[in-house]
Structure formats: C-alpha cells, structure tokens
Amino acid sequence: MKTSNFIKISVIIAIFSLMVTACSKPINEAKQGLDDTVKASTVEITDIHGTVSIPINPKNVVSLDNRTFETLSDWGIELAAAPKAVMPQDIPYASDESILDIGNHREPNLEIIAAVEPELVIIGQRFANFYEDIKALVPNAVVIDLNFDVSETSNSPGENLVNGLKDSTTTLGKIFDKNEEAEKLIADFDKAIADAKSAYNGTDTIMSVVVSGGNIGFSAPYTGRVWGPMYEIFGWTPALEIDKSSSDHQGDDVSVEAIAQSNPDWIFVLDRDAAVTTTSDAVPAQDVIDNSPALQNVTAISKEQTVYAPNDTYTNESIQTYLELFENIASALSK
C-alpha cells in the first residue's frame, strides 16, 4: 500500500514538473520577444559627443541643422519646430504653419523647443554652440549633434565634408527607418564625386568666389565656404592662394583685380544673397560676375567657363545640394 502511494506521488510530481517546464518556456519566449521588440524600437547612433539610444521614428522632432532639412522633407518626416529664418524657402517646412519657428541662430527662441516636448532634437552647423543649453532645456529628450565642421587648420577638409555628409545621412536613415533611401542617396553622392573627379583634366586652374551684397569675395582653397574642401576632393589646381585664409561666409577680402590677375580657367560661384535675401534689391551673382570690368579678359569669362552653385546652397548644405552641385561640375568640366 505504501509502495503504491509512493508511486502515485512520484507520478504527480513528475507531471507537475512537466507542466512547470512547459509553462516556463512560453513565458521565457514571451520575455525574449518583448526584449527584442524593445531593442527593435530603438537604435544606437554615435555623434560627436558619444553614443546615444534613440527611438525609431520619434515623435515631436525638432531639427536645427540646415544640412538635414531637405533630406527630412524628402522623406516625409514631420517637424514640430525649426529655425525657419535660416531655412531655404523652397523647402515645404518653411511655409508649414504647424511648425513653430525658433528663429535664427543669432537670436533663437529656444523656449519653443521645450514647448513642443520633443523626443528628439537634431543640432548641427549654425546651432552647434547651443548643444548644452538645449540638453538642459529638454532633459527628457534625446539631443544629437550632427555637426562635422572642423577648424580651419584641419588637414583634411575634403574628407571631413564627404564623410560628414554620408555619416549624417546614414544616421538619419537609422533613426527614421529610411535605410534604403539613405543608401541610395549615398550611392548617388559617391557617383557624383567620381564623375566630377574624372571630368577634371588636372591642369586647368580654378577660382572660387562668394558673391554677397554685390561684392566678390575669395573662397580660398581648403578653407573657403562651400568650395574650399573641393580642392582636396577633386585635386583642383588653385588659380590663387593667400596667407591666413578663412571660412568667412562672405569670402576673404581679395581685390577683384587680384582675382583677374590670376587668370583662372574656371570660376566657381556661390550666390549668398540668393539664399538669404527675400527682396528684389539683391543683384544676382551672375550679373555681378558678368558686369565686372576687371574680369572681362579672364579666360574663365571669355570661354564661358563659370559654374554657379544652386541658389539655396548657402542655407541648404545638404547631401542633395552637394550631389546636385557635383553633377553640375562634372557636366561643365566634361564639355
């Protein structure tokens, strides 16, 4: 009798153990699935301050980085706030009344960022100096800094520009689940670089300038605004080099006569006013170049070898802008 009871108890214990094991398996699987879901809903990215975890497709996004506006707009990403005062007017965000205007980088209304309760704030370029202020203002948001500008003493401005644009595009693709779109942009960008590089004959001299307020400023090789890094990227031969060059937004103060005396084979022009002036008073850069008496006998003018950056370049230094510009350069140099 005792033996029979022992056997029964043993069977009951065995059945109970099997039931516990069977139940624990789906529980563990469910826990693992939950963990995987949490992991899949966030992505880790590295900016110039370190590695951070960001929700994929975050809500209430604020972007302050001019280099991101066209990319985010093309991808259909909604913004809660942005600095419309330094935004290209042909980008839909600029006329979207639902997007609060933070103003420009000189006198921004940062309180607007807190008001929209963002999950993500993207900083870069003009607003890079406000990183700590914004982090303190929105402690519950993820704040990333996509700025990749380097000092004027950098040994590799071309590599910095190319890698910076590509890395930022990859980062945005991860955050907004647009990886395929990001890869396509980067592939097109790489092709445009290769085409522009192969189109240059290696000997023609290049002059790059910034036209602002009717004046022609010198955009120096390596350091100059927009054009500078391209001397390294494409191996251009400078028509003119100066001591103590800068990245000044209006170019360095070099006389038009000095520019003419260098007799460049090509002139590349950034029209700053086209991007920042909303009145009809601004003189188009092409008119300034064409009507400059000192430049009339320059090879670049006589041979019609002048290339203009897209009109919104000064406030839209996105990967799309450079892609378009590089394609234009390749087309011009190939003729």
What does this entry look like structurally?
- There is one protein chain.
- This protein is α/β, with parallel strands linked by helices and 335 residues long.
- It has 12 helices and 12 strands.
- It has helices spanning 2-40, 69-74, 111-115, 131-137, 157-175, 179-199, 230-234, 256-261, 273-276, 285-290, 299-302, 319-334, and strands spanning 42-47, 50-55, 61-63, 81-82, 100-101, 120-123, 142-145, 205-212, 215-218, 237-238, 266-271, 306-308.
- The strands form 4 sheets. Strands 8, 9, 10, 11 and 12 form a 5-stranded mixed β-sheet that branches. Strands 3-6-7 form a 3-stranded parallel β-sheet, with helices on one face. A two-stranded antiparallel sheet has the order 1-2.
- The N and C termini lie far apart (106 Å).
- The model is unreliable at 33-39 (pLDDT under 50).
Distance between the termini: 106 Å
Q: Can you tell me the residue ranges where pLDDT is under 50 for at least 5 consecutive residues?
A: 33-39
The overall pLDDT, averaged over residues, is 87
Structural class call reads: alpha/beta
Total DSSP helices: 12
* Main sheet overview: 5 strands, mixed
Oligomeric state: single chain
Helix percent reads: 40-55%
Rg value: 28 Å
Percent of residues in β-strands: 5-15%
Task: Tell me, briefly, the overall form.
Answer: globular
The succession of helices and strands, N to C, reads HEEEHEEHEHEHHEEHEHEHHHEH
Question: Count of DSSP E strands?
Answer: 12
Brief description of this entry?
The protein is α/β, with parallel strands linked by helices and 335 residues long.
